[in-house]
Write a structure and sequence with these properties.
CATH class of one domain: Mainly Alpha
Distance between the termini: 136 Å
Shape: elongated
Radius of gyration: 39 Å
Number of strands: 0
Largest sheet: none
CATH superfamily of one domain: Tetratricopeptide repeat domain
Order of helices and strands: HHHHHHHHHHHHHHHHHHHHHHHHHHHH
């Protein structure tokens, strides 16, 4: 790199001053200005630089130096004016453009600064400082994708600039640009393929984007580096389940059981997978280990209740949960399952109590609201059931079950049948192949004496669920009503005297 003072001397060799004496005087003023700048005496430096400019106003170097002095004095406008003059004299002067860009940055003129650094990038495309400044400017203007692009471009120019990629990753994660974050992690892994942090980040990102095969591959790579753990095996099992391979999911958990046979999370997952495969007898054996060794963990008792409810034995679910409720009174699942069991057992009073307690613990539980709505509907407390139905459909316009149940409740009580039809239409729109929903809308048409539509929908319903006695009864009733309507009346002719 050419020494700055040597550059100054070269510039002054070409000054357009008229005499050698003027050249010497201009150089003296310039050098004195530089000396004062180094001493921090910017005000006097300005005077010296101005004297030099008076002798030669066309020297870009002098304008840059006086601009620097004005900048340090906080006189931004004067600094900008001299930098503009310097660039008019030498459009390719990088120092003048850099100083102008930094001046705009200090003044928070981000758009102007961006234009300057884009020009610098054109003049020196491999300069990482320009790229990273542009990235920072994009970030300040919340243009996240552009900032990431600049950081990646910097890495492509110089693969040693890992800090820029890490900054890009932070931006992507903060702005929820998960696809970009995954792209950046892949680049980071090219540089450091055994970095556990990056492997875990890609695993988490691909889990979020439901790229389960990629997430599984990341876990395999983590295992190859640091060995397997029960936690990693649980994650692998969950991924195999998502990939519709329940056998592998279960086998992986048996491997975890071999490593740690008294890990409650391992035992609970084995029980859940066995229940999904309807291998209840095996599930009971593993679940007993949870109950025996972890009596303060509610999941063992909850699993027993789930098995009872899946076997349509609500009374057994109640027996499984009730003795332990005092210890787990603030456990949502305990309260929810107990309330559901009482509801199925037709003990609506206790069903309301426990489902209401479950809702107090977890106010956002839609399943709890659905069950409470059904109980209040059954007990004729329609103000309360309607309130739950309206809340359910107003907070989720895709809740087909809420639309259907509310519609059926209204038509069964003979209230607002037109509104019930509107609700049922929404349910059908969301789930056009649901037998219960087709039956509901058919039943509403029946109540409206629109027998053709009623028969059509209820027959569709029965074709989907041909063994459903309620749907059969509905169809019989509609067919009978329709036949009565179409049977011609026979009028007897009275005898005349």
């Amino acid at each position: 790199m050419i020494n700055k003072f040597l550059l100054i001397l070269i510039c002054f060799a070409f000054l357009s001053a008229n005499t050698e004496q003027e050249k010497e005087i201009a150089l003296h003023h310039f050098m004195q200005g530089e000396f004062l700048m180094n001493q921090g005496n910017y005000a006097l430096a300005v005077l010296e630089f101005q004297d030099a400019i008076d002798l030669d106003p066309n020297a870009a170097t002098i304008h840059i130096s006086i601009a620097d002095a004005y900048r340090r004095l906080g006189k931004g406008k004067r600094s900008e004016d001299h930098l503009m003059i310097a660039l008019d004299l030498d459009p390719k002067d990088l120092e003048a453009r850099e100083m102008l860009g930094q001046l705009y940055l200090a003044q928070n003129k981000f758009i102007d600064a961006e234009l300057v650094f884009k020009e610098l990038k054109i003049l020196d495309p491999d300069n990482l400082d320009y790229l990273f400044t542009l990235a920072d400017l994009a970030r300040l203007q919340k243009n996240w994708d552009l900032a990431i692009d600049y950081y990646i471009e910097g890495y492509q120019i110089n693969s040693m600039s890992i800090n820029g990629l890490e900054q890009a990753l932070q931006i992507a994660l903060t702005s929820s640009s998960f696809d970009r974050a995954e792209e950046i992690c892949a680049l980071l892994l090219e540089d450091d393929p055994d970095n556990i942090k990056f492997l875990e980040t890609i695993r988490d990102l691909t889990l979020f984007s439901r790229k389960f095969d990629v997430a599984l591959d990341m876990i395999h790579r983590i295992e190859n580096i640091q060995g397997t753990t029960t936690e990693l095996l649980i994650q692998k099992s969950a991924l195999y389940e998502e990939l519709n391979d329940p056998d592998k999911a279960l086998n992986v958990m048996f491997d975890a059981f071999e490593i740690d046979s008294l890990n409650v999370n391992v035992l609970h997952r084995i029980v859940s997978l066995l229940l999904d495969k309807e291998e209840n007898e095996k599930a009971i054996l593993y679940n007993q280990l949870i109950i025996d060794h972890f009596p303060d963990d509610p999941r063992g008792f909850i699993n027993n209740a789930v098995m009872a409810l899946s076997g349509k034995k609500p009374e057994e679910a109640i027996l499984a949960l009730s003795p332990h409720l005092d210890r787990f009174s603030q456990d949502f699942t305990m309260q929810y399952l107990l309330g559901t069991a009482y509801y199925q057992f037709k003990d609506y009073g206790n069903g309301k109590i426990h489902l209401s307690q479950a809702l107090a613990i977890f106010p956002e539980s839609r399943n709890t609201k659905h069950n409470l709505a059904l109980i209040y509907d059954t007990t004729g407390e329609w103000d309360r059931s309607d309130k739950f139905y309206m809340e359910l459909i107003s907070t989720d316009s895709t809740d087909a079950q809420a639309f259907n149940n509310y519609a059926y409740s209204l038509v069964e009580r003979g209230e607002d049948v037109e509104f019930a039809l509107e609700l049922a239409m929404n349910a059908i729109r969301l789930a056009p192949k649901s037998a219960p929903y087709l039956d509901t809308i058919g039943w509403i048409y029946f109540k409206m004496n629109r027998y053709e539509e009623a028969v059509d929908f209820i027959r569709q319903s029965l074709s989907i669920d041909p063994e459903n006695n309620t749907i059969k009864d509905h169809l019989d009733e509609v067919v009978k009503a329709k036949s009565k309507e179409t049977t011609p009346k026979i009028h007897q002719v009275e005898k005349q005297d």
